[in-house]
Design a protein that fits this description.
The chain is an alpha/beta fold. It is built from eleven helices and 15 strands. The N and C termini lie far apart (48 Å). Strands 7-8-9-4-10-11 form a six-stranded mixed β-sheet, with helices on both faces. Strands 1, 2, 3, 5 and 6 form a five-stranded antiparallel β-sheet that branches. Strands 13-14-12-15 form a four-stranded antiparallel β-sheet, covered by helices on one side. It folds into two domains: 219 residues, P-loop containing nucleotide triphosphate hydrolases (Rossmann fold); 59 residues, Alpha-Beta Plaits. α3 packs across α4 and α3 runs parallel beside α5. A hairpin with a 2-residue loop joins β13 and β14. It binds adenosine-5'-triphosphate. The site of adenosine-5'-triphosphate has 12 residues, from β2 and α1. It holds the Pfam family ABC_tran. Belongs to the ABC transporter superfamily. This is ABC transporter ATP-binding protein. GO terms for molecular function: ATP binding.
């Protein structure tokens, strides 16, 4: 769906995007993570032909970008850096104008399409208020409605939940999962780990212009070599596993062990009731921390 090779963008002496090989496959829910300034927005803009690359190649929906970008844009729903809207017009009028810029049938069809898009993003009840009176969250939803007008095969969204409250974030996440279930590939950038963790199946991590991680989320969450055991008799388990328990809290023990099966057998054979058993895995946060350098605004003490 999206492939880049050695994609690079320089702004003067700044290398905003540095040799990125991106692979987004059909059906993915791909989350591009990275701190502010790591190059996400520049990368997203290049995918849409809004910024020209200094070096490298881009293919979106099988076509080279920017050369053939006009052919693929009708199949893409995009929202990049704060939805642009005419502030003095209502949300509905803005969307109607946006819709009018594309192909698409009778007046009735167009109105229906606008209504459906507003409904999907939770703005069905909007009145005639101008967009300038909208909250950031409402603007964000309006931008998303614009991206959904033409049942896109591919959604490219830069920080889609920016400015939304927790409930709004949840709603947009559910909506994106639903659209993905209906066949749309979702590619989004975010600086929020939890958001990507909750929604995405595939993750890329940017660090100072470079793509330092790209993998399935499940494959990134490798086991840590520890198993969490729940038991109503933790003392007995502690005595049995002497020296292998790293942490003990109430009825839960964290045990250094590679194989939950043999651990369980050992506990049961010794008469310990096991009520829970879980392999501990690396969190996405750990993956990101391991892959990235210290944050750009941190100043280390010199020696
Ligand atoms: N038009 C531009 N001119 C000069 N430098 C730019 C321009 N656009 C981006 N940069 C620089 O490129 C780097 C990457 O910026 P970019 O906006 O792509 O990062 P980001 O990860 O999207 O961050 P944010 O979340 O803050 O948008 C930054 O150092 C930024 O200052």
């Amino acid at each position: 769906m999206i492939t880049t090779r050695d994609l690079t963008k320089r702004f003067g002496r700044t290398v905003a995007v540095d040799g990125v090989d991106l692979h987004v496959r059909e059906g993915d829910r791909y989350g591009l993570l990275g701190p502010n300034g790591s190059g996400k927005t520049t990368l997203v803009r290049m995918l849409l032909g809004l910024v020209f690359a200094t070096r490298g190649e881009i293919e979106v929906l099988g076509q080279p970008v920017p050369k053939r970008v006009r052919e693929v844009l009708p199949s893409i729903g995009a929202m990049v850096e704060g939805p642009g809207a005419y502030p003095n017009l209502s949300g509905r009028t803005n969307l109607a104008l946006f819709d009018a810029a594309g192909p698409g049938g009778s007046r009735r069809d167009r109105r229906k399409r606008v209504d459906e898009a507003l409904e999907r993003v939770g703005l069905a009840g909007i009145d005639r208020r101008p967009v300038r009176a909208y909250s950031l969250g409402m603007r964000q939803r309006l931008g998303l409605a614009g991206a959904l007008l033409r049942t896109p095969r591919l959604l490219i969204l830069d920080e889609p939940t920016n400015g939304l409250d927790p409930r709004g974030i949840r709603e947009i996440r559910d909506l994106l999962a639903e659209l993905n279930g209906e066949g749309a590939t979702v590619f989004l950038s975010s600086h929020l780990l939890a958001e990507v963790d909750a929604l995405c199946t595939r993750v890329g991590v940017m660090d100072r212009g470079r793509l330092v991680v790209q993998d399935e989320l499940d494959d990134l969450r490798t086991p840590t070599g520890r198993v969490t055991v729940g038991t109503p008799t933790p003392e007995r388990a502690l005595a049995l596993l002497d020296g292998r328990v790293e942490n003990h809290q109430g009825q839960f023990l964290t045990v250094r062990h590679d194989d939950p099966g043999t651990l369980n057998a050992e506990l049961v054979a010794a008469g310990v009731t096991v009520t829970a058993l879980a392999v501990e895995r690396r969190t996405l946060e750990q993956v990101v921390l391991d892959a990235t350098t210290t944050s750009a605004d941190r100043v280390e003490a010199g020696r």
